[in-house]
Specification:
Layout: H1 2-32, E1 40-46, E2 61-67, E3 121-127, E4 142-150, E5 158-176, E6 188-196, H2 198-210, E7 211-217, E8 231-232, H3 233-237, E9 253-260, E10 263-270
Antiparallel strand pairs: 1-2, 3-6, 4-5, 4-7, 5-6, 5-8, 9-10
Amino acid sequence: MGNAKWMIQLGVACTLALLAGVVAFHLSRAAQAPVRPPAEVKVMAAAKDLPRGHVLAEKDLTLVSLRADGLPQTYFGNATGLVGRVLLTSAAAREPLSSGRLAPEDATAGGVSALVAQGKRAIAVKGNKVLGLSGFIRPGNRVDVVATIEDDQLPGKVMTRTVLANVLVLAAGVETSEVPGEDGKTSSVDVYTLELTPAEGETLALAATKGTLNFALRNPADNATDPTPGTGVASALGVGQRKRDTQGRPVPQIKVEVLRGTETTVHTFIVRRGGQS
């Protein structure tokens, strides 16, 4: 009886060992089996670095092989749907092109006009090296426009204020004057094209006509547009500072001299609306 029990246990152990060996054999064969590479697709890509606003030609395109599972759904397999289209964003060499990076098919002019967003306008302003931060302002930057204007109602009254905030720079270039200066040489000025709403364009045109403009370069992550009250000559120099109301206008004041014997004192009263002080 004891020998029979021992023989059954031995048979079960051998069976389990055999099954474990078979499983290990199949697992090792599976590990050694060659892994099939993911399927690749031929797609159209930029043949070289291309700027935004560029009109695509056949020489700008090339075919590259990329994994099918990593491609955008709107990729192009040939140049038929790409030639003549305008890039909305810049493209690096061998970077695949998709419909989301192209202007609508009816936009074929290219250049700055293709980059202007719906409802916006491109307004160009002439400046100088100081206005343009010595060439540091580039397309794609955002700036504040600071205007210094003399008030027509108050001759000699000059005010500086930020008139436009967080404005996108579409283009920056140099324009050469066709009329020679006093020295007989032509001069060049920097031209900056900004993306503005129609109302902002009117503000910029007035500020450029009536005063002097400067640009304040912004951090790309800074979207704050808090209005400022502006600065006059007195407040900039720290003299004769006057209180201002919530809209940034100086509050009228009256100074009264009081004579008491040989002593003279001056009292300042703020005139409020309605004549109260």
